[in-house]
Amino acid sequence: MTVHARLSIMLLLCLSLAVPALAAQALPDFRDIVKSGSPAVVKIFAEHRVGSGSRQMPDLQDIPEHLRRFFEFRGAPPEQRQRMAMGSGFIISDDGYIVTNNHVVEGAESVLVRMIDRREFDAEVIGTDPRSDLALLRIGARNLPALALEADDDLEVGSWVVAIGSPFGLDYSVTAGIVSAMGRSLPTEEGENYVPFIQTDVAINPGNSGGPLFDLDGDVVGVNSQIFTRSGGSIGLSFAIPSSVVRNVVAQLKEHGRVTRGWLGVTIQDVDKTLAESFGLSRPRGALINQLSEGGPAAKSGLKPGDVILRFAGEDIDTSAELPHVVGLITPDTTVPVEIMRDRKRKTLKVTVGGLDAEDSYALSNEIDTANGGGRLGLVIENAPEDALQRFGLSGGVLVRRVISGSVAADAGILPGDIITLLGSTAIKDISAFQRAVTKLSPGDSVPLRLVRRGTPMFIGLKLGE
């Protein structure tokens, strides 16, 4: 064997020994996080009493005495069944405050907390916030191990994270993974969207709900809340509530027992490529206002339908889903700067944010500013019927009867039945206003068109040919 061959073999042997060592050094070690964090993690049992399904007995006092014996209950009282919900949580102060998910304790008659040393405590529900799916509990104990809700601003996609909880009742299980995305929007059944979720591929299963999500420094960066699954178990799509949201909610629940969050009173939509061009934006971005709540904070502060919100309280708004996340964290009655695009010009307004209590719901007014459209666009129109205007709360508009195939309107996605209320910055009251507005358009123009479709207002970008 030549010297060269012997050297090659030795090099390969060295590499084979070095690669596993290098790989081991690259992987994080979670042992210290688990040792320091586990004592503050708790298992939560929420008891619900459910009737056995037997028929409700009538009030005997309302029955004549000679018939009462036929209704008198004989035997044991009606059976009550118990349903036990189970989840996780963690202690946030040494005097017994505990954070978990609202859905873990919602509607419970009693809540029991079990610690890692097997001690058990009855818990008082201090307050809940269904909009963020958070709940604050308290147990009667002192000098408890606690976890701090640290800032999550440094968390990035690709960062390692660790979860501790009780999936399927398996106490104090540890799973790890990476952050898959930040600021995920998961609207509730009511269409509300106040939580910019942290998406991870950490294995989260039923029973993990309410448990902490740690970064590699051992800081709590989120509360595990929900998963996306087709099987009932983890498929690598789990979502945690960021610590910034948790801190805000916990502080309010501690002080008031309820949560009031910032409210603007608008409906919004994303800006696509055509709309961006029509508004004078270099790229699709921002939250486009298409409706205002009558007398709401936005309307009082001078915002208008057609404004594109680019920055709110110093935070960039890249998509419409980001706006509720920012507004919801602002203390009501706070005045903040809002940068908008209006009439193709940037403008900054001072907006005073309103408040939305935990028990409140709101509906936007159907009153809408009117708008315009035109025959060059490939539309067959008529004045909107009075009953339609009344039904949708409109003061005027034109009804689209037909859209010519291959026309500007067809390319933009306008449909028969749409009521056009705005073209560019011009309000449309009737056909004459529509026609006047269209004659002002020049070849190559890009303009926003506002319409009402089945009661829902929206903007569509309209681009004329050269």
TrEMBL record:
Biological process according to GO: proteolysis
Domain PDZ per the UniProt entry, residue ranges: 248-344, 365-455
N-terminal signal peptide: 1-23
Binding, substrate: 47, 103, 133, 207-209
One Pfam family from the record: Trypsin_2
Class of enzymatic activity (EC top level): hydrolase
Active site: 103 (charge relay system), 133 (charge relay system), 209 (charge relay system)
Keywords for this protein: Hydrolase, Periplasm, Protease, Repeat, Serine protease, Signal, Stress response
Catalytic activity: Acts on substrates that are at least partially unfolded. The cleavage site P1 residue is normally between a pair of hydrophobic residues, such as Val-|-Val
Domain of life: Bacteria
InterPro entries, A to Z: PDZ (IPR001478), PDZ_sf (IPR036034), Pept_S1C_Do (IPR011782), Peptidase_S1_PA (IPR009003), Peptidase_S1C (IPR001940)
Single GO molecular function: serine-type endopeptidase activity
Similarity comment: Belongs to the peptidase S1C family.
Function: Might be efficient in the degradation of transiently denatured and unfolded proteins which accumulate in the periplasm following stress conditions.
Name of this protein: Probable periplasmic serine endoprotease DegP-like
